[in-house]
Design brief:
The protein has 4 helices and 5 strands. The chain is an alpha+beta fold and 194 residues long. Bound molecules: heme C.
Length: 194
């Protein structure tokens, strides 16, 4: 009996070991930011353009910013530029909470709003005015094997499908160089940073 148990134990060990080795080598092929799951959330048309996702009002807020334009013009408190609001699609957020990683088909949205100075004299500061533009960052190592991501821009309130911006464009450069987690700006998002 003891021998039988021993054989079974050895077999189980070999199977588990084999699975672990297979998973490890898969992880090696995909690189450090390997993603285990594919959420299948992003929808594309037959030209590969990303459809603007529905229900983004229910997405989880990651963070907000002020005056973070993509240019070198110094910040001016009188005219602070746009307010930005970063969100993550809920199933991607759930996966992130469980694993600390982004699944394939993670959708991240950045919406820019014009700043609106509060019109009542007793109230100071700025609030969100008109929607200026929306940007989407998709992480997907299967669909975009080269950079494992793609970027899309939706000017104003447009819902027209958007083509992916070319690999190597400024979006890729800045995100890959400065984003703390897998090309995303985790360092600016209290929801997942803290
Ligand atoms: C000069 C640097 C820079 C460039 C270029 C840039 N971004 Fe970003 N991006 C940021 C920063 C910083 C944030 C953090 C949020 C904020 O600033 O409000 C961000 C956040 C985002 C987010 C939210 C999710 C995430 O990845 O953190 C999206 C979506 C996004 N950018 C899309 C784009 C697109 C599309 C382009 C190209 C048209 C682009 N970005 C170009 C700096 C950049």
């Amino acid at each position: 009996m003891a021998i039988r148990k021993g054989i079974l134990g050895a077999a189980a060990f070999a199977i588990i070991g084999g699975v672990l080795i297979a998973q490890f080598s898969q992880g090696q092929q995909r690189g450090a930011s390997s993603r285990g799951a594919h959420l299948g959330v992003a929808q594309y048309d037959d030209q590969g353009r990303l459809l603007f996702p529905e229900g983004t009002d229910r997405w989880i807020t990651l963070g907000a910013g002020l005056g973070g334009e993509y240019n070198d013009v110094p910040f001016d408190a009188e005219h602070p530029g746009n307010l930005s609001h970063a969100q993550i699609e809920p199933s991607a957020y759930d996966y992130f909470l469980q694993t600390g990683q982004y699944a394939d088909s993670t959708l991240l949205l950045l919406s820019f709003y014009e700043t609106l100075e509060k019109p009542e004299p007793a109230l100071q500061g700025f609030v969100q005015g008109a929607l200026a533009t929306r940007e989407i960052h998709v992480l997907d190592s299967q669909r975009f094997p080269e950079e494992r991501r793609a970027f899309f821009v939706y000017p104003g309130g447009t819902l027209e499908p958007a083509a992916a911006l070319p690999v190597g464009s400024a979006c890729f450069e800045c995100h890959i160089e400065h984003g703390d987690l897998d090309g995303t700006f985790l360092q600016f998002y209290p929801t997942i940073r803290d």
